[in-house]
Amino acid sequence: MQTLPDIRTEADITTLITTFYEKVGLDELLGPILQADAQVHWPQPLFTMQAFWKRVLLNTGGADGWPFPGGLVLPNTGEYFQRWRQLFLAAVEDNFNGPIAEAAKAKAQEIARMFEYKRQPRTLLSFLRTL
């Protein structure tokens, strides 16, 4: 059994994002959305997502980036975000193992929870329930 490396370089981040989007493109649920969204100028969104993960995982300065392509709109049901998360976690696990890889998976889980929370309808004072 081959031991996988941890995420350590910008090239590793590129591998992660490239692998992830290959998985998304082939996925039965998300692939059609990605193909329909192909009108978006993809090199820039990919660059922006790579900048985000470089900053988060490698503590690089520079652009903040964003974990999702700006023009990509997922339907407002949880199954799409769950699948997005599953594919990202699989991309990490297929290529990397170690503390930074675990941090990438934890951050992806956190981001998915945030997007799930934000997509749910809220009443005006719903924030009071969390107090």
UniProtKB/TrEMBL annotation:
Q: Which organism is it from?
A: Hymenobacter profundi
Protein name, as recorded: Group III truncated hemoglobin
